Amino acid sequence: MTDAAAPPESAFDPQALETARVLFARPAVFMMGAAQISGLPAADLPEVAFAGRSNVGKSSLINGLVGQHRLARASNEPGRTREVNFFVLDERLRLVDLPGYGFARASKTTAMEFQDLGRAYLRGRPNLKRVYLLIDARHGLKPVDAEALDALDQAAVSYQIVLTKADKIKPAEVDAVVQQTLQAIAKRPAAFPRVLATSSEKGGGLPDLRAEIALACDVHAL
Ligand code: GDP
């Protein structure tokens, strides 16, 4: 790590940030949605997946990362949100949008089906490099998120918590939520010990998240 040379607000050196910026400026395209575990694409590219409660800001974050407004569709398209959606970036890696959890209006059975698909994906994906678990910065970790954390620990997939909508609260409040979250995950074996605060609206935290994804997928240079 070259933390000493990095600006204080970033854990990454300028070169890593620049590589990631260029990577995410390259074409990102919707590949496919899988409604069943048998319909997943071949595990032939590195993948990072995004999980979180519905409405946490998952579509906005994926769109913000690639700088496209309409790549990941809004959560109000019910068909799409039940699938695992795959986006290919630069024909080099895939961003994977997992079904949102915590649906208030879905029946219990339907909610379980979404989760089963998500869990099956997490357990059986050798090319899955990291899962980003999105948490609303205003709320922090909630009981409904604990189940997702348990599933991730059980699947033994490396995961990292990303706070969303950080622009909605004051910077000092964001710092407090980051600290609380770090404490809450300290004993969780598969949790990456860094929490990123992001704002898809203002762009805050996105350069670092791009750099995290590039490194997780072993993209060190282009
Ligand atoms: P999803 O269900 O997790 O895909 O959530 P969406 O991306 O559709 O976002 C849910 C709502 O939160 C939408 O109204 C977004 O405009 C809003 N939102 C998402 N990200 C941000 C953000 O960074 N800042 C603010 N202020 N609002 C956001």
Please, what is the CATH homologous superfamily? P-loop containing nucleotide triphosphate hydrolases
User: In total, how many beta strands?
Assistant: 7
Distance between the termini: 19 Å
Unreliable spans: none
Return the domain count: 1
Structural class designation: alpha/beta
* Cofactors, ions, other ligands: guanosine-5'-diphosphate
Oligomer: single chain
What's the shape? globular
Q: What is the rounded Rg?
A: 16 Å
Largest sheet: 7 strands, mixed
CATH class: Alpha Beta
CATH architectural label: 3-Layer(aba) Sandwich
Number of helical segments? Answer: 7
Helix % is 25-40%
Sheet with most strands: strand arrangement: 1-3-4-2-5-6-7
CATH topology: Rossmann fold
